[in-house]
Amino acid sequence: MDNKTMYKLSYGLFVLTANEDGKDNGCIINTAIQVTSNPNRISIAVNKANATHDMILRTNKFTVSVISEDADFELFKRFGFQSGRDVDKFAGFTDCKRGYNGLNYVTKGCNGFISAWVEQAIDLGTHTLFIAAVTDMEVLSNVPSATYAYYQSNIKPKPQPAAENKTGKTAWRCTVCGYVYEGEELPADFVCPLCKHPASDFEKIAN
Length: 207
Description:
Order of helices and strands: EEEEHEHEEEEHEEE
Largest sheet: 7 strands, antiparallel
Distance between the termini: 31 Å
Strand content: 35-45%
Strand order of the largest sheet: 2-1-5-8-9-4-3
């Protein structure tokens, strides 16, 4: 069985936002789909390691901003490469507006947003699947939605080839999204901050 077949599935990219006790937070996810049209419901799968996950679990509401092809890498760095437990991801960030549900949605590099109220949470082990009723949504632009393939080819900087790496540091590259971790050893429990894949999906690219 070839596990890489899973990579052939098409994925969108989204900024998932939440708010609890006046604190805004957000993270990058790749699973948000409509599950019923009448009533209108969507589902999202969120890694339990994300601070945003716990906020949604407690408040039962979230907004997903659909990332478009005109997004830049800074959007991914802000929401995907740092933890909301350590930093305020919205500090100094002006490319957002507050929706009717009190949560921020991203206005630049996104072509729409969907706000929802959680009706059901299903424990999937490492993730939680949230089934939610849509409470608000709006188209922000007609720029096509970004896929993982588009992100890797056109947004994310290409990892430096091992032969051209001048830092002399050992590096490990995520085979799913291309994120590069520098260090002599990759921790066994390491999780890619962008795509949330485990250490087993990383390959050594430099010595």
